[in-house]
Amino acid sequence: MRVLGLLGPLALALALAGGCHGLSFHLPPQTRKCLKEELHRDVMVTGEYEVSEAAAPGLRTDLRVTDSSGHTLYSKDDAKKGKFAFTTDNYEIYEICFESHGQPGNFRIPDQLISLDIKHGVEARNYDDIAKAEKLKPLEVDLRRLEDLSESIVKDFAFMKQREEEMRDTNESTSARVFCFSIFSMFCLVGLATWQVFYLRRFFKAKKLIE
């Protein structure tokens, strides 16, 4: 009973920490709307979408999922309803775009409603299938889920530490370069001031203003 009592708050933390985004928006005819998200490496992403029926013939909505390099991870012409899944290869920004095509004509056409549910990380894994494949009990499934969540949190902290080290190295390198540039600028100013003094002295001597 103690274990079950402990799993309640931990399950709540799991639901809050897992990546899950459900949203809906309107897509006007002949427009393009994209969603971008920054993801780590080796993260599983699943998505489920539904596009309302076009209010005019000839209109269609295409779906494209690409990375920052322009590689297509998933594409669907005349998307209506479906699912997609992929695993990230690198740490970068991934983009999900819905684009409306076709000529709406001279009359007003209602916007299409796009529903999109995106999950990544622990929430993207199907633990029901894992439980069936490995013959796990419900408590064991919860423990597996908590184990995966802990591993995900550790990876996030390791990534944050790596980014902090990279930013610190960049700051130190920038500070060193600024210091060297300041020293160089100081020597340049001193040299210029010295040359100006000697030049003015020769000039005044040539004009016989000073001895």
TrEMBL record:
Residues 32-145 form the GOLD domain. It is a single-pass type I membrane protein. The keyword Signal applies. It is found in: Endoplasmic reticulum membrane; Membrane. Keywords: Endoplasmic reticulum, Membrane, Signal, Transmembrane, Transmembrane helix. The keyword Transmembrane helix applies. The chain crosses the membrane at residues 176-200. This is Transmembrane emp24 domain-containing protein 10-like.
